[in-house]
Design goal:
Blueprint lengths: L1 H15 L8 E2 L19 E5 L2 E2 L4 E4 L6 E6 L8 E10 L8 E7 L16 E8 L14 E8 L16 E4 L9 E8 L2 E7 L7 E6 L2 E2 L5 E7 L6 E11 L18 E2 L19 H37 L1
Antiparallel strand pairs: 1-16, 2-5, 3-4, 4-16, 5-15, 6-11, 6-16, 7-8, 7-15, 8-9, 9-10, 11-12, 12-13, 14-17
Bound molecules: 2-acetamido-2-deoxy-beta-D-glucopyranose and calcium ion (CA).
């Protein structure tokens, strides 16, 4: 009984994680998993700054108090071409209004304090920004909290007044605050395709937030995560970061040296106030086909009935006149 129950749990776990290649390799030196501390007083391979505190069960980047900034950065450069970072986090607080949010970094320069959710502006690399507070007063084209990605070669500034919308490559709305269950976010970077997914509905399943192609990032940058509060605040807690090197048997692993390329994205979203895309029809192709078929049959039937009716009328009128 015990054995079969165990087996069931293992099978269930497999089912839940079926989406992930089991050969993907967890890189311990780029991950942050409980217990955080090694043998000494340091977290091996990681360094934290500002308001960050380490507890046995979570890493708190900011507490629910105004004007805090905290970060934690991986000191080992990530020399992996295709990877996935899974972030287990918890954002919670008492305020009716809350902010500002956190950012997950793959950046050239780690540990630099700054205005972009606790880190450097004009950065080089990738930022996935989890923005809980809407700063702009103009018309909204999305709700907050909002998850977006920004790819920067060092020339762009993150504009808080517009919530970064004019420099983002893509984004999606997401709700995750004050939930009683676990919330996760995954950043997958595979063959220059960037996919951000969330697991925030207590379903133990990933839901795609957005996917963009043509994102070029060099190897050798640093992973990090930072958070900030302003007038409004929240607890920004990280429970774990897991970095997987992706196992891509079909990828010939081009020998291109990626260490010196400049971060770039082929596509940027058009600036704010763009017209929302029409909602995709919920009808599938086959349903549309059958509806059209039904429609044509109805039209043919109407025409036939019309002709018959017309002929009847003609006959009647003939009878009347002759
Ligand atoms: C950096 O990015 C900006 C904006 O996307 C672009 O105009 C510029 O040419 C880029 N510079 C380099 C050196 O790639
Ligand atoms: Ca904001």
């Amino acid at each position: 009984m015990y054995l079969s129950c165990n087996l069931f749990i293992i099978l269930l776990a497999h089912f839940v994680h079926a989406e992930w290649n089991t050969k993907d390799f967890l890189k311990r030196e780029h991950s942050l998993i409980k217990p955080y501390y090694g043998s000494g007083l340091d977290i091996p391979f990681w360094q934290f700054t500002g308001s960050t505190i380490i507890t046995p069960n979570y890493i708190r980047l900011t507490d629910d108090a105004p004007s805090k900034r905290g970060s934690i950065w991986n000191l080992m450069p990530l020399n992996v071409r295709n990877w996935e970072l899974q972030v287990h986090f918890k954002v919670h607080g008492n305020g009716k209004l809350f902010g500002d949010g956190f950012a997950i970094w793959y950046a050239k320069e780690p540990l630099i304090d700054g205005p972009v959710f606790g880190s450097k502006d004009y950065f080089q690399g990738l930022a996935v920004i989890v923005d809980t507070y809407s700063n702009h007063n103009g018309p909204h084209n999305h709700q907050h909290p909002y998850v977006s990605a920004m790819v920067n070669n060092g020339s762009l500034s993150y504009d808080h007044d517009r919530d970064g919308t004019h420099t983002q490559v893509a984004g999606c709305e997401a709700r995750f605050r004050n939930f009683g269950f676990d919330t996760h976010l995954a950043i997958r970077y595979e063959k220059d395709v960037l996919t951000v997914s969330t697991d925030m509905e207590n379903k133990a399943a990933w839901k795609q937030c957005f996917q963009v192609t043509g994102v070029r990032l060099p190897t050798g940058y640093h992973l990090g995560i930072s958070a900030t509060t302003g007038d409004l605040s929240d607890n920004h807690d990280i429970i774990s970061l897991r970095l997987y090197e992706l196992d891509l048997p079909d990828d010939p692993q081009p020998q291109e040296d990626r260490s010196n390329i400049i971060p770039s994205a082929k596509f940027f979203e058009p600036p704010r106030d763009h017209v929302e895309d029409p909602k995709p029809s919920s009808l599938s192709g086959i349903k549309i086909f059958f509806l059209m078929l039904l429609g044509s049959v109805a039209i043919v039937a109407c025409v036939v009935l019309g002709i018959m009716f017309y002929q009847k009328q003609q006959e009647k009128s003939r009878k009347r006149f002759y």
